[in-house]
Amino acid sequence: MAGVWILAESREPTLELLSAGIDIAAQLGVKVAAFALSSQLAEEYIKCGCDEVMLLPPLAAGQPLESYVPVIVEEALLNGPDIILIGASQRGREIAARAAAALNTGLCSGCTGLRLDQEKKQLVMERMLFGGAAVQTVVCETRPQMATIPPRTFEQAQPAEGHQGEVRQLPAAPPSPVTVVERTPKTSEAVDITEAKTVVCVGRGVGKQEDIALARELAGVLGGEVGCSRPVAEDLRWLPEELYLGISGKKVKPDLYIGVGVAGQIQHVSGIRDSKVIVGINRDENAPIFEAADYGIVGDLYDIVPKLVKEIKAALKI
Amino acid sequence: MPRIIACFKWVMDEADIKADPKSRQLVLDRVGYKISDYDRNAIEEAVQLQEKHGGSVVGITVATPGAKPCLKDALSRGPEKACFVNDPAFENLDPSQTAAILAAAIDGKIEYDLIICGEGSSDLYAQQVGPALAEKLGIPCATYVNKLTYVEGENKVIAQRKLDDGLETVSVKLPALITVLPDLNTPRIPSLKQVLGAAKKPVDNVSLANLQQTFEPCLKTTGILAATMERRRLKFTADPEDIRKVVDSLIKEGVIA
Amino acid sequence: MEEEKFAAIIVGAGPAGSTAAYMLAKAGLEVLLVEKGAAPGGKNMFGGRMYSHALNQVIPNFWEEAPLERAVARELITFLDGGRSLTLNCQDLSWTEPPYHSFTLLRAEFDAWLAGKAEEAGAMLACGIRVDDLLIKDGKVAGIIAGEDEMAADVVIAADGVNSLIAQKAGLRKKAPAPHQVGTGAKQVIKLSPEAVSRRFGLSGNNGAAQLFVGDCTKGMQGGGFLYTNKDSISLGLIVSAAELQKNKHRISDLLEEFKASPHIAPLIEGGEVVEYSAHLVPEAGLGMMPQLYSDGILVTGDAAGFVLNLGYVVRGMDFAIASGAAAARAVLSARAANDFSRQKLGLYQQFLKDSFVLRDLEAYRGAPHFLEIQRMFKAYPQFATGLVSKIFTVDGGEPEHLLGKALGQIKKSGIGWGQLAGDGWKGARLL
Lengths: 318, 257, 432
Description:
The complex is a heterotrimer of chains A (318), B (257) and C (432).
Chain A: E1 4-7, H1 11-28, E2 32-36, H2 39-47, E3 52-55, H3 69-79, E4 83-87, H4 90-102, E5 107-108, E6 111-117, E7 122-129, E8 134-140, E9 145-149, E10 166-169, E11 178-185, E12 198-202, H5 212-222, E13 225-228, H6 230-234, E14 256-260, H7 266-269, E15 277-282, E16 295-298, H8 301-316
Parallel strand pairs in A: 1-2, 1-4, 2-3, 3-10, 4-9, 5-9, 12-13, 12-14, 14-15, 15-16
Antiparallel strand pairs in A: 6-7, 7-8
Helix pairs in contact in A: 3-4, 5-8
Chain B: E1 3-7, E2 10-12, E3 18-19, E4 26-27, E5 33-35, H1 37-53, E6 56-63, H2 69-75, E7 81-86, H3 95-106, E8 114-118, H4 129-137, E9 141-151, E10 156-163, E11 166-173, E12 176-180, H5 192-198, E13 203-206, H6 208-211, E14 219-226, E15 234-236, H7 240-252
Parallel strand pairs in B: 1-6, 1-8, 6-7, 7-13, 8-12, 9-12
Antiparallel strand pairs in B: 2-5, 3-4, 9-10, 10-11
Helix pairs in contact in B: 2-5, 3-4
Chain C: E1 5-11, H1 15-26, E2 31-34, E3 49-51, H2 53-58, E4 70-81, E5 84-91, E6 102-104, H3 107-120, E7 124-126, E8 133-137, E9 140-146, E10 149-158, H4 165-169, E11 182-191, H5 194-200, E12 207-215, E13 223-229, E14 233-241, H6 242-248, H7 252-261, H8 266-269, E15 273-283, E16 294-295, E17 298-300, E18 309-310, E19 315-316, H9 318-337, H10 343-346, H11 348-355, H12 357-364, H13 368-373, H14 380-393, H15 403-414, H16 418-431
Parallel strand pairs in C: 1-2, 1-10, 2-7, 4-12, 10-17
Antiparallel strand pairs in C: 3-6, 4-5, 4-6, 8-9, 9-10, 11-14, 11-15, 12-13, 13-14, 16-17, 18-19
Helix pairs in contact in C: 1-3, 1-9, 9-11, 11-12, 14-15
């Protein structure tokens, strides 16, 4: 079936892309199809407005999810979809890149916004460049038009009363030259930093791991959570990687973001730019965080943070 | 003894990019260039594997002729040879073109067991060239690798991938392509002798004409604008009075309660 | 490779170092040019204007290929006092014809070009390398040490800037220069359209202007402001005595922001976007801070040797740097011909400098730095001059007063003593 295709690793991103796909398909006057990993999900997708579900058969033991690439490519070659939207998980990105290469078509990676140019029947897609310093607008000259889309870019599609659709079984994935020998699922963190209303972020300016306590105290009086910049998680390993904010990490949209010793590299700022209010604390008055902050406090964080805690406690009478 | 190709890209240093706030046009005329951050990890990994297992490392890049300084930079990081696929037409390539050009320059021309790429480039960060190149060459790939082991005598690598939902260790038959994360290694800072040595290493120049193909873009860029960030940029000192002002403002804005 | 030895190693790929490397490489020597920054010019954003004569000796008609911004047609000096300013404005169009008097330029581009010329001539350029120490053999400088690497050379040329580590390591200078010997500089490059730049400074075509400011912009501290017009931007900055800045607890970045916001500057940069900011130390004390210029196996050039001349109305550094680099190269070539790199032989360098304009000019203006240290230069005199001229032009129905009376009144108001005025006038005429 031509039309708009949706592919994502799991239920939530599929539903998110489905809502965007339904919208575009309606404008184009075509149908929406999605890939599903179980018939239970297939049913749900249909309820939520999907016209066709392509059911991927289970993988053999040791096959990674990316083994579906040849199956997806084959289907696309047979049916000629206009558009394929893929959830930008890491696997999704690999699958999309390989499928696009096999289909000799263009792929907009990390698409943060898209609309349809009705006249040209073309998607106009936006994505970040230079670590978030710029926004690039692209159109795809070849077909299908492909994009990978980060989670939570769109609202999830909701069940539509009595919506009907077909489920079609796809052939099994061919044997894969890549074999999984071990899987260590991520221990799910109690904290979801993306849900926090207040985020206190620890940067390289914090000298010792113990001193993260300062940030925790500040987050504590504000009822917020502690996050960090990429090097604090990846190089220093002081905090788990689920907590680093930035273009390659978590994107947060809290009411209040306080950067403690965060320099404010563009890659980091890209992950916090949708915060309602940004406060930056840094010793270097020329630190880029001050360009990105509503309130910049220049000075030693070891001096400022305790004062800040004291003032907040006084103001909130706690 | 693995024959390794490390792919790298010469990119604008995003820290040098400025923008005109009114037109939102990027001001690019005073930007410096660098080897894309994650590609330094790719080169480093290739060189470490060679130091451990022998074999060879070739660095390859696709660029305009103006990117020539990248060769010395890359070669000072350890590869014994560079392949400089360059043409004035290779400007603002889309990822599909870069992958196709790399494939054309490698396939049948450079013998290899393993190709290593960075997870994405620091300018476009499309994260496409690695997996797309593997697809074009018809070899398996493993992306987002943060631990890589070459298994001598078995012609395979064991790679640990760091994914959204956890770690996945895969075994990949060679020839194959790996894209690497920055936490895989710490790229070396070239020493004086390494920099001097780089100037003497061989470079293969490959032009568009040598490839005997054309490479059309799939994506067309219709606009690039600076990302806007309207912030008040008020500055305060560490004086208790200033801190109180900040706290008062935050309460007024309703973000502290 | 371990046995590699260079004829000369030059530390620092600024104008002095690259000139020396260019000349030596052109003469067929194995030359290594080592730069600390990721690229030549990357660290040093200063300068902004170069007098042409020195480089024209080394690379004739360099303007045909070098990345230059504008040929300076107009020189301005402005005295500032509150809402008043007084500008001396001199245009000489002969300066904009070959061999061109001076050019504005952007150091990042110019330095990269000059280092590129050295490379083209056969010099080996190694960027991103910090030289940690000198290799000393039998009490003589015999090469450099960078990290774990040692590299031998017949001679080392220190061209590593105002804080020259190499000159210190060679024992040619005691320590880093004292605060009163250096100025702290801050500069911004502000982008405008080429038309706006030409219009605002009354320049035709691609002619340029260079403007110096004295007075309020440094809050009376020793130093001044400068402004150079580039093709499509303006380099605007301040240099203030590091000692006075320390004493008065001012921050150079705040001063520069205030300067930009002042009514004398704001209209010139209106609508412009800051595309570059840099801060830097500048040698100020002329001959007073000159280290020993040579020893066994080593020569010191450019800023590292303190070859900067600040006369208040003329600030020179790049032409001295280039000429000293050239003199060093000639000394090395002579030393090589005699296969003698001893201090006696390398003493030729000082001779060449004396024969050239470098030491001659620095000697001629030896007293200038001290003269410029006189506080009055930066507060009272700008006040006096702007006040007087403003008075001359003011028609307000008040009592008529002759010029002399106006002058006397202003002198009184500015609190300058008669003896001081006479003394400073005499000194100034003699020293500048």
